[in-house]
Amino acid sequence: MRVSGLSSISGVPVATIKYYLREGLLHRGATTSPNQARYDDTHVRRLRLIRSLVEVGGLPIATVRDVLAAVDDPDTPVHAMLGKAVYAITADTDDDQDDHHDRAVAEVEAMLARNGWHVSEHAPARRSAASVLARMHRLGQERFTAKLDDYARAAERIAEADLAPVADLQDRGDRAEAALVGTVLGDALLAALRRMAQESFSAKHFPPTTDRE
Amino acid sequence: MRVSGLSSISGVPVATIKYYLREGLLHRGATTSPNQARYDDTHVRRLRLIRSLVEVGGLPIATVRDVLAAVDDPDTPVHAMLGKAVYAITADTDDDQDDHHDRAVAEVEAMLARNGWHVSEHAPARRSAASVLARMHRLGQERFTAKLDDYARAAERIAEADLAPVADLQDRGDRAEAALVGTVLGDALLAALRRMAQESFSAKHFPPTTDRE
DNA sequence: GCATGTGGATACTGTAACTATCCGATAGTG
DNA sequence: CACTATCGGATAGTTACAGTATCCACATGC
Predict the structure, then answer these.
(1) CA–CA separation, A78 vs A140, rounded Å?
(2) Model pLDDT for residues A55-72, shown as the tens digit of each residue
(3) C-alpha angle B181/B182/B185, rounded to 5°?
(4) Pairing assessment for the beta strands A30-33 and A36-38 based on DSSP bridges
């Protein structure tokens, strides 16, 4: 298969495929002549993965390159690769280092302790959670503090569902890719489920009279 | 307070504040002279909200304008405003209309039926969930189908925690803003909690020997 | 044998989100 | 009251990102 075939199967324009090749997101095809190469279904798979990370996850192309390089590198442990992806996904929302931030950090720590979670001191998710919580406080939305444990318990169940199937995978590459997809696309799936659950819950407990037109 | 004061309090550059004024994201200050205006803490609050939606939620400026216009308009029902925000947040990941997509749609419908959820036929979250699920299938990640109910039950608990406090709010504007922040920043908070839960669960059930270096 | 397509390099485009400059007018200081 | 910093508002410029488009010498396949 050559570029045009890869393009029509994947729906990605030829020019864009060339761009991804150039940027190192997609491995080159097997060259049969100075200006001829063959692509196979590994390219199709990879292209699909790239598009999902970009379109659903919103990752910048440069990040996708780094993450995929980590996926491909057998020396990179899976958790390190995921850390990279997760760190990339999580916008580094500059924390303002004010009272709200300090309070948010303390609340996250208290929540971890209450629930018996063991999370690295330097996990980006810690900073991220505290940063978002601090923003909520600054916006006058204090109610999340009280609900943190409810969210945490839900997150626990989700994490359990996330990890069990991944642990069964033998091949390192498969496991890395599964973890990556689960993390990035999983966020989008969960967000959609949350919306539907909200709508359903709202319809059930607040009959559509005043609030719902 | 004038722009420079607003700028130093909020940390947003003057030029950017002017840009937001121009684009209609921020209401103009009370003009005291042809070229002089006073800003108050409603501007500070609004600015914080804008930055959160942009930096955490990743919403485009044009969308933020539309969403905030809906928040401000007393004639827009809260759920319509939220629908706008939710629709904006959820990238319209073009569904490829193939077998995978059809199957994903069916799986989402089955899940809704099994859990007794009442969700509008045209809810964007439906399309979004199906679209993400279809992508997972195309990537060879089938395990999510089996886990859909686990995720759904977690989403139910989250939705419950989300909605209860919002229902208490009396003022329409407060309620709209609370729902908006809860939806947009809530996604980010939940994603961070999920990461931490994964790390904690992983450490607990897969002792750090082989996989975790 | 010749139109069609190829890999690869280079240059260009479009959009989004600011950022900088300029203007005449005002505010607050001394 | 003079005067300098700052203001609001308009306009133009910048940067970053993610592609697109063009060009080329060469291959393929009818």
Answers:
(1) 39
(2) 999 999 999 999 999 999
(3) 65
(4) antiparallel
pLDDT for A210 equals: 47
Tell me if B194 and A11 make a contact (CB, 8 A cut-off): no
Helical residues (DSSP H) of chain A, grouped into ranges = 3-10, 14-23, 41-55, 61-72, 78-89, 99-115, 124-138, 143-168, 172-205
* CA–CA distance, A146 with B161 (Å, rounded to integer): 10
Q: Collapsing DSSP states into helix, strand and coil, what is residue B33?
A: strand
Q: Which residues touch strand D (CB under 7 A)?
A: A 13, 15-16, 18-19, 32-36, 54, 60-62; B 2-5, 14, 18, 21-22, 28-29, 31, 34-39
Pairwise CB contact (< 8 Å): B132 & A200: no
Q: A167 with B204: CB under 8 angstroms?
A: no
Helix (H) or strand (E) holding B38: strand B36-38
Rounded to whole angstroms, how far apart are CA atoms A185 and B158? Answer: 19
Mean pLDDT, rounded, for B92-111? 89
Sign of the alpha-carbon dihedral angle for B39, B40, B43, B44: positive
Nearest to B56 among A91, A162, A213 (CB): A91
Terminal C-alpha separation, chain A: 55
Find residues 82-101 of chain A whose CB sits inside 8 Å of chain B: 86, 89-91, 93, 96
Residue tagged 């601090």 (tokens)? A134
Cα distances (angstroms) measured from residue A152 to each of A117, B107, B191, B199 = 10, 27, 11, 13
Rounded distance between C-alpha atoms, residue B48 and residue A38, angstroms? 52
Q: A153-206 pLDDT, tens per residue?
A: 999 999 999 998 888 899 999 989 999 999 999 999 999 999 999 999 988 876
**What is the gyration radius of the CA atoms in chain B, in angstroms?**
21
pLDDT at B211: 45
Query: Residue B145 CB: number of other CB atoms within 10 A?
Result: 16
Taking Cα atoms as reference points, which of A152, A167, A210 lies closest to residue B192? Answer: A152
**Which amino acid, A32?**
T
